[in-house]
Amino acid sequence: MSRRTARPFAWGLFTLGLGLWLVGGVFAWLTRDLSAQTSWSGSNLIVAFAFGATLLTYPLAGLLIALRRPETPIGWILLVIGVCWGLASTTSYADYGLRLHPGTGQATALAAVVGSAMWAPAIGLTGSILILLFPDGRLPGHRWRWVARLSLFSIVAGTTSLLVTPGDMKDNGYPGVANPLGVSSFGTVIDTAHALVVLIPVAMAASALSLVVRFRNSGRVERQQIKWLAAAAAAVAGIYLVVMPLSAVIPADSSGHAPLWIQTAQDVALISFALIPTAIGIAVLRHRLYEIDVIVRKTLVYAALVVALGLVYLGGIALIGGLVRAASGQQGSLTVALSTLAVAAAFQPFRTRIQRAVDRRFYRSAYDAERAVRMFSDRLREEIGLETLQDAVIAVVNENLQPRSATLWLRSEEGS
User: Fold this and answer.
1) Nearest 10 degrees: Cα torsion 272, 274, 276, 277
2) What is the phi/psi pair of residue 404, to 5°?
3) Is the per-residue pLDDT at 354 higher than 70?
4) Do 346 and 248 belong together in one domain?
5) Which of 113, 128, 279, 325 is deepest in the core (most CB within 10 A)?
6) Is 73 part of a structural domain of the chain?
7) What ranges make up the beta strands (E) of 147-238?
8) With b meaning 16 or more CB within 10 Å and e meaning fewer, what string describes 245-265?
9) Residue 110 contacts residue 170 (beta carbons within 8 Å)
10) Which helix (H) or strand (E) holds 354?
């Protein structure tokens, strides 16, 4: 498809996804006083709209890729995912008709069943097909066709079963409302199709494995592209691995709501989904592609630094607080002040040590180069022979940069 032909299709899909998102946003505002259906619905309306804007990054990244690289299916898949999330947002219209104004007709019930089922194709396409085809739009090999077929089959079968399940929609949050698309004659077929939804995470796991295979067999540019997606996915997964156990363990208050800091953590987890389409857009369009190593390096350093300083702070409060209580029998602001001073004093030494540890473990070439430059600088203070210094400079360059050839040019004393 040429760029001229692709342009109207890309803008059409993006406009459809944006229109559905705007409709969902309007009805979300109209139903803002209704209680949330789940604990992960956002702690307030602002966060709910922020999460909606996060999902809007999928069609936006898809539009940019489809306009500039229409030959790759990555942009088109992102646009389809955006339409699916737009359909999912229409559950706010169902809330408006079924919960706020009951008895308004079949349109709201249709929005309820369609919107409630769209998570399956949105998540399934993101976690399987998109990963399998990233970054060049082709499978890693012929053997991966069965994974793609399994993914598509599980997505289609799971979504269809969610749409045509007959009976009451109480599981979707609408008790007493019959599914207008339900087909009661299917019977056990629907139950079997429901079980096929389990295949979606299986296909997602296999797709993640394909990235490892692709990374090992790819060149330099493709490896940088995979690093962007892997870093974004690891960040999202890491946040969820922390937030989900905390959400399950921390009890709710008397009103049935989680503590504010848990709600904030859940909001961060929801909004973190924007990292994936952003990383895909950067990788496919190759905009600032080679900055991923710097980002990962800084992330590792400062994540470890935050953990270390947090341990120092908590340990200082426990230790100094115990000494103060033993000496005076009470605990005042002195404990917090001293712990804060200890954290401030430890910041720079900790950062330097953690930086060296990360470079030594994950960025060995950069660590060796820095060490070689430091050793050469120390040698300059002691060496005065010009010929010896020339040989040393060439040796350092050859050892760390490994060029095909290296020549040192010096200006003569006459300046010629």
Assistant:
1) 180
2) -70, -35
3) yes
4) no
5) 128
6) yes
7) 168-169, 174-178
8) eebeeeeeeeeeebeeebbeb
9) no
10) helix 334-362
Q: Taking the model in full, what pTM does it have?
A: 0.69
Q: Could you give the C-alpha distances from 247 to 17, 40, 52, 182, 298, in angstroms and in order?
A: 31, 10, 21, 34, 28
Q: Where are the beta strands (DSSP E) in 47-200?
A: 168-169, 174-178
Residue 124's alpha-carbon distances to 130, 202, 385, 394, in angstroms, are 9, 10, 67, 54
Both structure tokens of 45: 């309306």
Residue 135: asked if its preceding bond is cis (omega within 30°), the reply is: yes
Report residue 163 as tokens: 């749409």
Q: Is 398 left (phi over 0), alpha (psi -120 to 50) or beta?
A: alpha
Residue span of the structural domain in which 339 resides: 300-362
Phi/psi at 141 (5° precision): 180, 170
- Reported for 366-370, long-range contacts at CB under 8 A and 24+ positions apart, including other chains, are 368/400, 369/400, 369/401
Q: Is residue 370 part of a domain?
A: no
Count CB atoms within 10 A of the CB of residue 27: 22
Cβ atoms within 10 A of the Cβ of 119, count? Answer: 16
Separation CA 218–CA 238 (nearest Å):
26
Which pair of structure tokens corresponds to residue 222?
């493709």
Nearest to 99 by CA among 181, 169, 42: 169
Residues 41-81: tens digit of each pLDDT: 444 566 667 777 788 889 999 999 998 888 889 999 999 99
Q: Is residue 413 part of a domain?
A: no
Could you tell me if 128 and 147 are in contact, meaning their C-beta atoms sit under 8 angstroms apart?
Answer: yes
pLDDT band at 108 (very low <50, low <70, confident <90, very high): confident
21 and 114: one domain?
A: yes
Q: Angle between the 199-217 and 145-164 helix axes, to the nearest 10 degrees?
A: 150
- Tell me what the pLDDT averaged over the chain comes to: 79
| One domain for residues 264 and 322 | no
DSSP 146: H
